[in-house]
Amino acid sequence: MDILQHLVAGFGVALSPTNLLIAAIGCFIGTIVGLLPGLGPINGVAILMPLAFAMKLPAETSLILLAAVYIGCEYGGRISSILLNVPGDAGAIMTALDGYPMARKGLGGVALSISAWSSFVGSLVATIGIVLFAPLLASWALSFGPAEYFALMCFAFACIAGLMGDAPVKAGLAAIIGLSMSCVGLDSNSGIYRFTGGDVHLSDGIQFVVVVIGVFSISEILLMLQEHHSSTGIITQTGRMMFNLKELAYTWWGTLRSSVVGFAVGVLPGAGATIASAMTYSMEKSLTDKEGTFGKGDIRGVAAPEAANNSAATGSFVPMLTLGVPGSGTTAVMMGALSLYNITPGPALFTQQPDLVWGLIASLFLANVILLVLNIPLVGVFIKVLKVPNWLLVPGIIAVSSVGVYAVHATTFDLVLMTALGFAAYLLRKQGVPMAPLILGFVLGDMMEQNLRRALSISNGDASILVGSPISIGLWTAAALMLVVPLVMRTLQKRRSAEVTAA
After folding, report:
1. What are the angstrom distances between the C-alpha of 351 and each of 11, 140, 345, 355?
2. Which of 393, 427, 429, 501 has the fewest CB atoms below 10 angstroms from its CB?
3. Which of 417, 498, 393 is nearest to 196 (CA)?
4. CA dist., res. 305 & res. 82, Å (int)
């Protein structure tokens, strides 16, 4: 009953005219920022944080604004992912695998609308989860040490291997390239520069924005130019902007499953939406992809990662509010915003600042409704991107991508590196090497290395620590199953096919 009373009080805070207007503005800004490749939620929140403080907004209003921008970015990241095959952020990588093929089939509007609905369901499930299970899940997250996180990363890579079906060698190659790229720069444990070639521009490592824009945007442009598309645009649009009830029913259980899994992953500090979307995509592929349509424009391959992506992003508020530990890079920035107001997040926050906590939770419910109302009608506006002629679209993508990359360090070196990576990715894609494992390997590589080295330093080099807890054993077992089960299933399927042919 106490929870219900607190939630009612929270809605009282969130529904004040000022906070409601701020939430709506934050949702709109977040969608636009998410749409632009290379920016993402961290940049959106980081840009607005000093602005909110300078405007002397109350702490709860400032937090509502930043949360709305965060959730809006997660919604917006799918738009460029589906329409242009350029993920707005790391969490939208998996959406591109089926979203872009759907757009190429003329179903861009359907992909956008089902992704908006799945995002809504994912965030709603996660927000309900925050209300009901925040203390319980926070205590569970505390049991994750470096060894458990390393096992979780290995499980994520096992999921990637399961994604790629009949091309595990090419997927493995892509993941190794991504892992190698993540090793460039400053060694966080020893403080020594490595693999930089003496170039000062690589001392901070290769930036995520540079990699994702080069690998997806530049290579896509090169493929686009090679295929000599007509001047009317890259993709045709059939006219249907909304998913129908049959498609809703087709994706419903996958969306719910992915929302629950995404929330569980989001609660883990540092795990993030990228792991959640990769895990759920792989899970849905293994559970439901009997016809081998995933990766070719299957609507379930759009709904599942989008639900998980948004659910994990919302779930990342749990460790921030209850433990004072950032659940993601974006919530780390939001913790910085709280420190500007001399507020320390943690267990005491629920008793000392109930209006702030429950006002934020209530605003997440409202932000989701606002974003659904905002995104569904605007599908027609977003889809007009498809009607832009090639001679205008290609320079536009290059311009937006270049600005996003240049803004990181303001150096031409990043632009040159982006172009080089784009050409390399183009050659790899021509050979059928998938790009998703490369990006995921790059994103997870640093976290994986850090947790492995921390675990081994705790145990003085004893590797048994990696299987020293029930959680890590469970994750290793799940990883093994992810590698073995798809292989067994494919073997059995081939045998059945051979038997049918022989008969």
Report:
1. 17, 21, 11, 9
2. 501
3. 417
4. 12
pTM attached to this predicted model: 0.69
Report H helices in 85-228: 93-104, 108-142, 146-163, 168-182, 208-212, 219-226
Report d(CA 156, CA 261) in Å as an integer.
Answer: 13
Within a 10 A sphere around the Cβ of 431, how many other Cβ atoms?
8
DSSP 383-441: HGGGGS-HHHHHHHHHHHHHHHHHHHH--HHHHHHHHHHHHHHHHHHHTT--SHHHHHH
pLDDT per position as a tens digit, 274-309: 778 888 888 888 888 777 788 788 888 889 999 998
> Per-residue pLDDT averaged across 471-485, rounded?
85
CA dihedral (228, 233, 236, 241) in degrees, to 10, reads: 150
CA gyration radius for the chain?
A: 22
Which residues, including other chains, have CB under 8 Å from residue 348's CB and lie 6 or more apart? none
List of residues 6+ apart from 446 with CB closer than 8 A: 182, 188, 205
Identity of the residue numbered 258: S
Q: What is the sign of the dihedral through the CA atoms of 393, 395, 401 and 403?
A: negative
Instruction: Report pLDDT for 38.
Output: 55
Say how many domains are in the chain. 1
Helical segments of 236-353, H only: 245-267, 272-288, 300-315, 317-323, 329-340, 349-352
State the residue for tokens 């997927």: 171
For residue 203, the enclosing domain spans: 2-502
Angle ∠(481,167,426) on CA atoms, nearest 5: 135
Calpha distance 272→287 (Å, rounded): 23
| Residues 153 and 444 sit within 8 Å (Cβ to Cβ) | yes
Element (H, E) at 444: helix 436-458
DSSP string, 124-142: HHHHHHHHHHHHHHHHHHH
Comparing C-alpha atoms, which of 24, 62, 49 is closest to residue 359? Answer: 62
What is the DSSP secondary-structure string of 175-197?
A: HHHHHHHHTSEE-TTT--EESST
Specify the residue for token string 């977040």: 30
